[in-house]
Specification:
It is built from 24 helices and 24 strands. It has an eight-stranded mixed beta sheet, with no helix packed on it. A seven-stranded mixed beta sheet has the order 16-17-18-19-20-21-22. A five-stranded mixed beta barrel has the order 1-2-3-5-4. Helices cover 45% and strands 17% of the residues. The protein has 741 residues and is α/β, with parallel strands linked by helices.
């Protein structure tokens, strides 16, 4: 039976790695075969097929609930209810609309919208909205987060931008009560940490700034500011321990059995906390785990602790197979499994502080391969930060915050006092975390091959096993490839070109054997900096920690917005720009001028065709030549500048052209395309950009010239080797069933 349950879980988990879903006819055949095998008691194979069939069916249902192609990019009037707590960030509000209807046709059951300069939107209200609808979409690079997977896992079938709206009904849901509580929390004098209190009480992290999240990431304490299994388990544990203590002291009524009531009360409190927090995916996962652990403690304690954990994993996956698309799912169950592995088979006892200290560093080491596999940063200071922060938050901040929230209902003044104390404690913690973060920021490891990750996971499990486990020293040998993963550098005379997928902007990496150049650094919009969240992680995942040169074509935010974050994230040798006065002075920008230099047999040439111009026309140009093959990067030049380039008599012939100004109508004249005569062109732009790039007439000119266009919005990040005359590989070529290709 145990083998059947494990096979069922494996079948559910296989979904995460499928490139495409089986067709409906094949799923029916798999279901029938599974039933036949289970009837003949071939449990492992039958259970595996049952899990696979159910997971694929659930995934197909979620895919079918996505926005239809005919509505993609169109603005429709829709009507629906605001679900969950709206997120307010600077000048925009983001919220979910559930069960939306439109006279134009059927819509997904859940739509995520953003509304700039919105009026006050409250949870539970019904609105009539004019929304520009979009299919679920996100940038795709060769490493990093996957927005489309996240949207599918949360059953969000469309996104959109609100153009206008009208409230048609007031608040009518549990979320409305949560929203009112959030407004009361924002009125508390919490030393500026009201957003943190809202995150801990209601699971609403929108009140935390980008800087706060960066600090939490650098110190490995992000899990403390989201309602996770840790907080819910702690609260349930307090209730269980309290009842057990009363029973031991003889203060519990003798006619009432304490153990069943302790289990029931603990689970009830956990579920209540989960409802208060919105019962999101991590909360549901934690409540299932607690319920099974309580059942194990009540009736099945003779079984080992792995039993309730395995059942919880199976139940969570069976309830929602798409949860395997979320990194938090893997990390939470891996953390539980790691703790059991670390402490389950040890003899003797450790002091509480020794136990706590060892748990922190062992968890940090044990989860490192999984973090690397998920493309997530690893906090160097995480063990030290968690050693202090976990008991501080769990034993002081959370009890005071929850107690204050409950007291607001009966004794408002006392509740305000408790919340103020919780806010002060949280503020003090952030000060300490800031000191710890200054020791070392989060480390973005180099992307390791699959074989190195598997060896590393096995090696660290062996290394962290209890004393007496055979061949523990072998763990160091197996884990070594994680510390020194192989780097694949271009050969002399050629260069690796990577056009990053950063939305509406540009960032191109040129790497030779010993040198690295970055042309433009991506956009910065509001508090989201592409340089910090996309460009730097992408470079570090490639093993790049230093740029010999960064060229910022001009000063517009979509090209130079991420430059400061890039310079803060790694060493930059030299910065050139067509508009140095618009670049942050701390970067030491220099004017772009005629330069030629050779790196590892690859020739680089820069010049500025219109040094007296401003804005797009001032773009600094870069021509790269490797083994007779050429790449031409043009920034945002317009047709007037193109004519000036042609008139200069320079040899601008190139095999590859990065399309000027993201394909706008004002660039890429027929004469310029003919002068460059590229075999192919590279287009960097956001799929749903508000400028309408690329313009159809521009694409028509490239088509008329016989130039093939590779588009990051459709292909994801592009990479190829200049000097080998090969074709670009798009990140979206790595197929997953949830991703459009």
């Amino acid at each position: 039976m145990r083998s059947g349950m494990i096979a069922f879980m494996v079948g559910l988990l296989v979904l995460r790695f499928l490139p495409t879903l089986p067709p409906g006819e094949l799923l029916v055949a798999i279901a029938l075969l599974s039933a036949a095998l289970l009837l003949t008691r071939a449990y492992p194979v039958g259970s595996f097929l049952l899990g696979l069939c159910w997971a694929c069916t659930a995934a197909q249902y979620a895919l079918d609930d996505r926005l239809v192609e005919t509505f993609d990019g169109r603005t429709l009037w829709i009507e629906g209810r605001v679900s969950g707590l709206p997120e307010k960030r600077q000048d925009s509000t983001r919220f979910l609309v559930e069960k939306a209807t439109s006279r134009r046709g059927e819509l997904p059951s859940l739509i995520r919208v953003s509304w700039r300069h919105a009026p006050e939107v409250k949870a539970g209200e019904r609105w009539r909205l004019a929304v520009e609808l979009k299919k679920p979409y996100g940038v795709v690079n060769f490493q990093g987060s996957d927005t489309e997977a996240w949207l599918l896992a949360h059953r969000i079938g469309a996104t959109g931008s609100v153009k206008a709206g009208q409230r048609i009904a007031g608040q009518q849901s549990l979320d409305a009560w949560r929203d009112r509580l959030r407004h009361r929390l924002l009125e508390v004098d919490a030393y500026g940490r009201n957003g943190g209190l809202s995150a801990l009480i209601l699971g609403d992290g929108s009140g935390l700034s980008t800087r706060d999240w960066q600090l939490l990431r650098d110190t490995g304490t992000t899990h403390l500011m989201v309602i996770s299994g840790q907080h819910i388990t702690l609260l349930a544990g307090f209730i269980f321990a309290g009842v057990a203590l009363l029973a031991r002291l003889g203060c519990w009524p003798s006619r009432l059995p304490w153990l069943p009531l302790a289990c029931v009360l603990s689970l009830s409190v956990a579920l209540s906390y989960g409802v208060l927090a919105g019962f999101d995916v991590p909360v549901r996962r934690a409540c299932v785990m607690i319920g099974l652990v309580m059942l194990w403690r009540l009736r099945f304690r003779h079984l080992n602790i792995w039993t309730p954990v395995s059942i919880a994993l199976a139940v969570v996956l069976a309830f929602d197979p798409l949860v395997s698309l979320l990194p938090g799912f893997w990390l939470s169950f891996a953390a539980v499994g790691m703790l059991i592995w670390i402490f389950g088979g040890r003899l003797g006892t450790w002091s509480p502080w020794r136990t706590w200290g060892r748990a922190q560093w062992m968890m940090a080491v044990g989860l490192a391969p999984l973090l690397m596999a998920l493309g997530l940063p690893i906090s160097i200071t995480g063990p030290l930060a968690n050693l202090i922060a976990v008991p501080w938050v769990d034993l002081l901040v959370v009890p005071a915050a929850l107690g204050g929230a409950l007291l607001l209902l009966v004794l408002p003044s006392l509740g305000m006092l408790c919340l103020s104390l919780a806010g002060g404690a949280l503020h003090l913690l952030f000060i300490v975390l800031h000191w710890i973060a200054e020791i070392a920021p989060a480390w973005q490891p180099t992307q390791a091959p699959v074989w190195a990750l598997v060896m590393g996971m096995l090696g660290l499990l062996v290394l962290l096993a209890p004393e007496g486990f055979p061949l523990r020293g072998l763990g160091l040998f197996l884990a070594a490839p994680l510390c020194w993963p192989p780097l694949y550098l271009p050969a002399p005379g050629v260069a690796t070109i990577r056009v990053l997928d950063i939305g509406q902007g540009l960032s191109v990496l040129v790497q030779t054997r010993d040198h690295v150049l970055l042309y433009d650094a991506g956009p910065k919009s509001g508090d989201f900096d592409t340089g910090e969240w996309v460009v730097v992680p992408a470079l570090k995942s490639m093993g790049i920690g230093r740029l010999d040169m960064m060229i910022l074509s001009h000063g517009d935010a979509d090209h130079a917005g991420g430059a400061l974050a890039v310079a803060q994230g790694m060493t930059v040798g030299r910065v050139l720009s067509g508009e140095p006065l618009r670049i942050p002075p701390v970067l030491g920008p220099q004017s772009c001028h005629d330069m030629r230099w050779l790196w590892n047999g690859v020739m680089f040439t820069t010049w500025q065709p219109a040094p007296d111009a401003k804005g797009n026309a001032a773009s600094c140009l870069l021509l790269v030549e490797a083994s007779g093959e050429r790449l031409f990067l043009t920034g945002d030049i317009d047709q007037q500048t193109e004519r000036r380039i042609i008139a200069s008599g320079r040899d601008i012939h190139a095999d590859w052209l990065v399309i000027p100004h993201h394909g706008s109508r004002s660039s890429s004249s027929a004469a310029f395309i003919a002068a460059v005569a590229p075999s192919a062109a590279l287009l960097s732009r956001g799929r749903y950009n508000s400028f309408g790039h690329p313009h159809p007439s521009t694409l028509a000119r490239y088509e008329a010239a016989g130039v093939r266009v590779y588009d990051t919005a459709m292909s994801g990040a592009l990479t190829f080797t200049l000097g080998k005359r090969d074709l670009p590989q798009g990140a979206r070529q790595k197929r997953y069933f949830w991703r459009e290709n």
